[in-house]
Specification:
By secondary structure, the protein is α/β, with parallel strands linked by helices. About 30% of the residues lie in helices and about 20% in strands. It has helices at about 15-30, 35-50, 55-60, 180, 185-190, 205-210, 215-220, 225-235, 240-250, 285-300, 330-340, 350-355, 410-420, 440-445, 470-485, and strands at about 55, 70-75, 80-85, 95-100, 105-115, 120-125, 140-145, 155-160, 195-200, 260-265, 270-275, 280-285, 310-315, 360-365, 365, 390, 395, 425, 435-440, 450-455, 460, 465-470. The structure holds manganese (II) ion (2 copies).
Length: about 500
């Protein structure tokens, strides 16, 4: 079969300009949203600039939703659905772009802070599938929230500004790593060793002691044994105490407040142009914010669609789409019901019809073909940089297990739309048969009986601290998603 064209060979000067300005907006989005909460905040900000109102505002206004109205609903600050109301009734079905906004990372445990040998650490439990050895020795930032017992929420973000400190996970020096280097890569860095080094300086001593000036060393040296042991006691975990004092001063939080915190450790790097030709973007969290952002832009571009259009950005995909903010929750269904009610169209049957007659692009990243690891891919059915939006008829592993397998009829319809709109696309599987696999949210939406196909953008280094995409594929994704919303 003829392989798709390289997108770079097809662009006009105007398109290249659009591609660069999109890349710039995309990089800014990646920097603004390194956690699902931050992504939701940023999406709400952008949406409101484009005239979207919250479902609560629509409810309070007591007006009936009209075609062209723009509404969003947020679930627990981690999941968001945005809608542009279509000319046709909801019952005719929606056009949905779905993607996830959670990414692999290290999560801080509930009782995390400890001191060992005058070094203070935060204990973590990693989130999602990671190669643990990739997360050591790189600069990391702390993002998240601490919710105090009285309900006050403290936002934490350390490591992003040029003058912020960063944190890191240490690794054994190569000089002593003979035994470690013989281990399987899976075991070379153990999960319990992914602790974040956050401090090494003991709490300053009382001013009275510090007041001894140049003699202080000598006078401490001469302390009686009893006084010395008492001094030791007060100095116990002085590094940890110092960290707690800093947390108290900066954020007004106590050690117990970690119990109700969600702190995520992510790479402290910004999104960057990549390659001497600047053809790529390197950044943390492109799985799946590359699909999330391009889906959002596509929705914002659609002025007055025939069918109601939706961009659904979910949390928890990396751990199985579980929980209230994952795709398996009823949030999406409930929100559609609310909207139909606001449009004066709700009935249980109308809701069922709206969902089952919907069409969706479940967008998630694909593995980009990597010539350095060619043996893990099957060349004809791989995704390539610069060859456009990727369609995965199915995903899954070992005999398509766990996969949504899109209907041939639906694939044909999507192909036709993309061809009509000059969207470059390619089809792919995630690696060779039986080498591995992966899942998405597609199979969950498919439970409503709607047409769903996996699509997305090819990524190199998927799930590594820094992932890489092709700017051309990001550009084609927006084109493809827009064409889908208008014509599917
Ligand atoms: Mn993903
Ligand atoms: Mn993933």
């Amino acid at each position: 079969m003829a392989q798709p064209k390289n997108a770079w060979n097809t662009y006009t000067d105007k398109q290249l300009e659009e591609l660069e300005s999109l890349s710039k907006r995309y990089r800014a989005f990646l920097d603004a949203g390194k956690t699902e909460r931050e992504c939701v905040t940023e999406v709400v900000r952008i949406a409101r600039e484009h005239g979207y109102r919250s479902i609560e505002e629509v409810r309070n206004a007591n007006s009936t939703l009209q075609p062209g109205d723009k509404v969003y609903a947020v679930c627990m600050e981690k999941m968001i659905a945005l809608f542009t109301v279509g000319k046709q009734s909801f019952e005719k079905g929606l056009r949905i772009l779905g993607a996830h906004i959670d990414s692999p990372r290290l999560d801080v445990k509930q009782d995390p802070l400890y001191e060992d040998t005058e070094l203070a650490y935060l204990d973590t439990h990693y989130y999602g599938g990671i190669k643990k050895y990739q997360w050591v020795t790189v600069p990391l930032a702390i993002h998240g929230v601490v919710v105090k017992k009285d309900g006050t929420k403290v936002q934490v973000c350390v490591g992003e500004h040029a003058d912020d400190p960063v944190v890191f996970v240490s690794d054994l020096l190569i000089h002593l790593a003979g035994e470690q280097m013989e281990k399987k890569a899976r075991l070379a860095i153990e999960g319990e060793k992914l602790d974040i080094l956050v401090g090494s300086r003991p709490m300053a001593k009382e001013t009275t002691k510090a007041g001894n000036g140049s003699c202080s060393d000598k006078s401490e040296y001469n302390l009686s044994e009893k006084a010395e042991s008492e001094d030791k006691k007060s100095e116990k975990e002085a590094v940890k105490q110092n960290i707690l004092a800093i947390l108290k001063e900066k954020y007004g939080i106590e050690e117990e407040d970690f119990l109700s915190a969600e702190l995520e450790i992510v790479p402290a790097e910004k999104a960057r142009d990549c390659g001497l030709d600047r053809s790529m973007i390197m950044a943390y969290g492109q799985d799946d914010r590359v699909c999330a952002y391009t889906s959002l832009e596509a929705l914002l571009d659609v002025p007055a669609p025939v069918r109601t259009c939706c961009c659904l950005l979910v949390d928890k995909e990396e751990i199985g789409s579980v929980g209230a903010t994952g795709m398996q929750s009823r949030f999406f269904e409930n929100t559609v019901a609310e909207l139909m009610d606001c449009a004066g169209e709700y009935s249980e049957l109308a809701l069922r019809r709206a969902l089952s007659r919907s069409r969706m692009l479940s967008s998630d990243v694909s593995a980009a073909y990597d010539p350095l690891y060619a043996s893990y891919f099957e060349k004809k059915n791989s995704a390539y940089f610069g060859k456009g939006l990727v369609l995965n008829k199915f995903t899954g592993s070992r005999g398509k297990s766990g996969s949504n397998d899109a209907n041939a009829e639906y694939v044909a319809a999507i192909r036709a739309i993309f061809d009509r709109n000059e969207v470059l696309f390619q089809t792919a599987e995630l690696g060779k048969v039986d080498v591995g696999g992966g899942g998405t949210i597609a199979y969950i939406s498919a439970l409503y009986g709607m047409e769903v196909i996996d699509s997305g953008v090819a990524v190199l280094n998927m799930h590594a601290p820094m992932e890489v995409t092709s700017k051309a594929d990001v550009y084609e994704a927006v084109k493809g998603y827009r064409a889908f919303l208008m014509e599917a």
